[in-house]
Amino acid sequence: MTIDTDQLQTELLDQIAAAATPEALEAVRVAAMGKSGSVTALLKTLGGMTPEARQIEGPKLNGLREAVTAALAARKAELETAALNERLAAERLDMTLPVPPALTGSIHPVSQVMDELAEIFADLGFAVATGPEIEDDWHNFTALNIPESHPARAMHDTFYIAQPPAGAGKLVLRTHTSPVQIRTMMTQKPPIRIIAPGRVYRSDSDATHTPMFHQVEGLVIDKGTTLAHLRWTLETFIKAFFEVDDVTLRFRPSYFPFTEPGVEVDVGYSSKTGKPAAGADADKCWAAAWCTAASSPRADSIPTSIRALPSASASTGWRCSNMA
C-alpha cells in the first residue's frame, strides 16, 4: 500500500497559510491532527502494515506530521504577533516620565501691590502716569513751589548726581513722584485724573526708613473738585484694596511746606482682623496712611481758573500707631 503524502501535505500547508485568525487555524489543526484528523488517521494505518511497508511509509507519514506541526506553530506565532502589534497600535501607552515643570518664578510682592493699585484706580477713571527717576532740580523742587531757600529743601535733600552731563543742571534721584504731576500738567489740558506710582529715593536709612521705597501719588484737576471727592476716592480705594465692606477715615490738618492746605489721613484699624475697619471694630486704633493736600496756588503749572485742587500721595508702607 502506497500513500500519497505530498498532495495531502500541500493541501494542509495551503489551508494553514490561508488561516486568517487563531480560530481558523485551530480548525485546520483539529481537522489534520485531531483524534479524527486526516494525518492522525494515516498514522493509525501503520499498525496494520507489513514490516516492509511500514519501513517505507513510516518516514513519509512522520515527515508529514512534523511538517504540519511546524507550519501550525509558525502560523500561530505569526497571528499572535500580528494581534499584539494591532493591540499596541490601538492601545498606545506612553511609559516615559513627564518633564518637570519649569520654574517660572512669581511676581514680586511690591510689583503685585502696585499692579493692584493701578487696577483699582483705573476702575475709578484714573490713568497711570510715569516719569524719569533721575530728575532735574526744577521738576523735583522749584516747579513744586520749593525754591532754594524753602525749608522743604532741607527735608527732601537726597542723592544728587555727582557729575551731571554738561548743561543738564543739578540732577537728583527723585524724592517723590510729584515731578510726574508737573510733567503731566505741562503736557495735558484739564480735566486731569492720574496716579503716579514709582520708586523714590531719600537719604533716610534707619529701622523704619529705607533710601528707596515705592510711592503712589494722585492728581485730579477739574472744576468743582473738593476734598469731599478726595475722601470718597480714598474710602472707595481702601474698601476695594483691603476687601472690606466699610471703613472709617479721619482727616487731620497738617503742615506741609510744599502744599496748602495739607491734611493727614488716618484709617480706622482693627487689631483683631489686621484690616481697616469702621465703628466699634476699629478698636480706637488708627493707621496713619496718607498725607493729602491741595496743590499750591502758586505752583507755576496750574492755570488760575482751577488752582488749589486736591492731590494725594501714599507710601506702600503703613505706619500704625494708637491714636485716640
What does this structure look like?
- It is a single chain.
- The chain is α+β, with helices and mostly antiparallel strands and 324 residues long.
- It folds into 2 domains: 5-90; 109-321, 2-Layer Sandwich (BirA Bifunctional Protein, domain 2).
- The protein has 9 helices and 9 strands.
- A hairpin with an 8-residue loop joins β6 and β7.
- The termini are far apart.
- Residues 296-324 have low confidence and may be disordered.
| Helix-strand category | alpha+beta
The top-level CATH class of the largest domain is Alpha Beta
- What is the general shape? rod-shaped
Question: Using only CA atoms, what is the Rg?
Answer: 47 Å
Q: Whole-Å distance between the termini?
A: 129 Å
Q: What is the helix tally?
A: 9
Within the CATH hierarchy, at the fold level, what is the topology of the largest domain?
BirA Bifunctional Protein, domain 2
